[in-house]
């Protein structure tokens, strides 16, 4: 029986684009050799990590969706664990309703960053009234 899996992995930020592409192709070929089907890859590009991993604060994120009998998970995770380029990985088994929500794509290009939308500048807020505080000389004269 074929089960759907999603794997997300993060590669070192100091890799060149060609090296990132080589690693993506390496793991795609690895899954193909281990009889995985319907391999979909999304290169999400370089992003900031939520917390440092192995002293890195950025990394290249890649998401892979595939179908297989489960025999592919351990070998690819072992290959990633032994790789110097991959700093973190996670594989999850998808339920049927999760699989239906995933749009099929073979995009390997990095996702575009969101476009900035121009907004009107806000009107300056009125300054609060400032109370004058008597100086020290005036206070001592009143006493």
From TrEMBL:
Binds together with bS18 to 16S ribosomal RNA. Belongs to the bacterial ribosomal protein bS6 family. CDD domains: bS6_chloro_cyano. GO terms for molecular function: small ribosomal subunit rRNA binding; structural constituent of ribosome. GO terms for cellular component: cytoplasm; ribonucleoprotein complex; ribosome. Residues 132-143 have a biased composition (Acidic residues). The lineage of its organism: Bacteria, Bacillati, Cyanobacteriota, Cyanophyceae, Oscillatoriophycideae. Keywords: Ribonucleoprotein, Ribosomal protein, RNA-binding, rRNA-binding. This is Small ribosomal subunit protein bS6. One of its GO terms (biological process) is translation. Residues 105-143 are annotated as: Disordered.
């Amino acid at each position: 029986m074929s089960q759907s899996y999603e794997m997300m992995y993060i590669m070192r930020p100091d890799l060149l684009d060609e090296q990132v592409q080589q690693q993506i192709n390496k793991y795609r070929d690895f899954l193909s050799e281990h009889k995985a089907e319907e391999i979909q890859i999304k290169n999400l590009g370089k992003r900031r990590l939520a917390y440092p991993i192995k002293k890195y604060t950025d990394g290249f994120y890649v998401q892979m969706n595939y179908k297989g009998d489960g025999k592919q998970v351990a070998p690819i995770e072992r290959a990633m664990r032994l790789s110097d380029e991959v700093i973190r990985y996670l594989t999850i088994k998808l339920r049927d309703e999760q699989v239906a929500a995933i749009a099929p794509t073979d995009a390997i290009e990095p996702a575009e960053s969101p476009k900035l939308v121009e907004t009107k500048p806000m009107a300056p807020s009125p300054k609060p009234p400032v109370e004058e505080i008597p100086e020290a000389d005036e206070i001592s004269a009143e006493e």
